Amino acid sequence: MQTNSPTAEVGERFRDLQHQLQDLWQSVELIEPYDRDILVLPSLSLDQRELKKIEASHYYEERLLFALLRLRNPRTRVIYVTSQPIHPSIIDYYLQFTGVPYSHTRDRLLLLSTYDLSSKPLTEKILKRPRLLQQIRQALRPGLSYMVCYNVSALERELSLQLNVPLFGLDPDLLYLGTKGGSRQLFAEVGIPFPDGSGTCKTVSELAVATAELWERQPQSRKFVVKLNEGISGEGNASLDLEALQSVAPGTAEQPERVKAIEQQFQNLHFQSKHENWENFSHRIPELGAIVEAFVGGEEKRSPSVQGIITPTGQVEILSTHDQVLDDQIFLGCSFPADQAYRLQLQELGQKVGEKLAQKGVLERFAIDFLAVRRPELPTGWDLQAIEVNIRKGGTTHPFMILRFLTQGRYDRDSGLFYGKQGEPKYYVALDNLQKDQYRGLLPSDLIDIIATHKVLQFDATSQTGNVFHLMGSLSEFGKLGITSIGNSPEHASDLYNKAVEVLDQETDFKTFSSDSATRPMGWQK
Fold this sequence. Notes:
D-amino Acid Aminotransferase, Chain A, domain 1, 20 strands
C-alpha cells in the first residue's frame, strides 16, 4: 500500500516530530524564558547553479546570526553550524547586543563547522559527516530542542529525522507552493490580483506556446517577463521584447508562425543576471520549469512585500511590511515599513495567503512580493499585483529580527508600525548589497575597529537607534556588506545609513590612508 512506502513513512515520522513543536511553542520569534536548545542551520538548500549567480552567496550563512541574540535568555543554548568557521570578531559583535556578560553567553553557544567550501548545501555536508552529526546530537537536550533553518528541503527533513529533533519549517512535499508557478496557483485559489501569465512550462516549446497565448490575451503588451520556476532574488528572471516581433503580433499572423518567432526571439532575452545566457537558461527549463508573465507597466512603480509566520498551532501572524530596493528585478535591500498608502492592504492580502498556506500544512515564515503601480483613480492610489510567495527566510528577515530583538518592541497590526519599548515608532533601511571595490581586503576585525572608532556606526541602546552590520565575512573577498539603519523616522534611518556609508568610504580611501590613521592592535606600541 502507498501508506507503507518509504516516502510516506518518512513523511509521517517527520510530521510526528513536528507535533512536538506545539508543546515547545511559546513564541519562537521572541526571547523565550524557558530552557531551549536551538540548532540554527543557515544552509542555503537551493539550486546551487542558481545560487552561484549571487555574488558572495557562501557568506549568506551569516544572515541568521541574529539568532545569537536569543542568548539574552540565560536558559537558552544555541548551536550554529556553518560551512566555514565564522571570524571571532563577528561572533563577538553579535554577542555584545545581548546585554549579558560575554562569558555567560559564550558558554551557551556552540559553533561548529564542516570546513567545506564546496558548492553543496551545508545540510548535505553535515549529513556526510557522521562524527559531526553525533556531536550535534549529543549537544541537544531531548524534549527541549528544535531546529530552525534558512529554507527547507528534503535534506533538512533528513537531518531532522537523524537527529530526532523537530524542525520549525514546512514539509518539503509542499515546496512547490514557493515556486513561481505554485505562487500563481495559490493567488488564484485565494482570489487576490496577480499578473496574467502561464502555469509552469517544462520545455522551451511549451514556453513559446504559453507566451503566444498570453500575447493573444494581452495584445497591447510590448514586453513579457520570463522566469525560472525556482529563481532566486530575481536572478532567474529575463525580459522578452515584443517590439521585435510585431510582424507576427496577434491579428497579424497565425499562431504557429507566432510561436516559432517567439521561440527564436528567446535567444535575445534580456537577463537580470550578468552571468546568464540563453544556452544555460534554456537547459534549466526542463530541470526547474519556467513561467511567462505580463509585464506590469506604469510611470511610478514600487516593489512592496509583506511577511508573516505560521505557528505550530496553525495561527497566522503578520510580522512586517517593506518597500523593497531593487536593481531592475534583483533584490538589493528594503525599507520598513511599507508606504502608509498600501501597508494595511498588504497585511490583508498577506493574511489571506497565510491562511491558505496554513490550511495546506505550511509552517514558519512566508513572504509575498508585490508590484505597486500608481493609480490615482483607486481609493488607495495604488494597484497591488502579487508576484510570488517565498516560503523561507529572505532578505527582509534579518533586519526585522534585529529590530525586534534589539528594541524588544512590538508590531502594531492596526497601523502597520513597529513601536519601541518607550512607545516611539521605529523605522529602518537595510541593504544586503553595500558593495564597493575599495572595501575589498577589509577584514572583519578591521570593520570592528572602524565601528568602535565612529559612534555613527554603532547602535545606541538608549535611543534604540543606529547601525547594525551583517555579511561581514564577505568584505575581504568581495567588498560586500549588509547594514540595517534603525531610526525614529524614515528620514532619520536614511540619514544614519548615508552617514555610515560616508564613514566607510573615508576609512577605505587608501589614497589618504596612513598607518597612523589605522586603529592599532591592543598592546602595540609606536
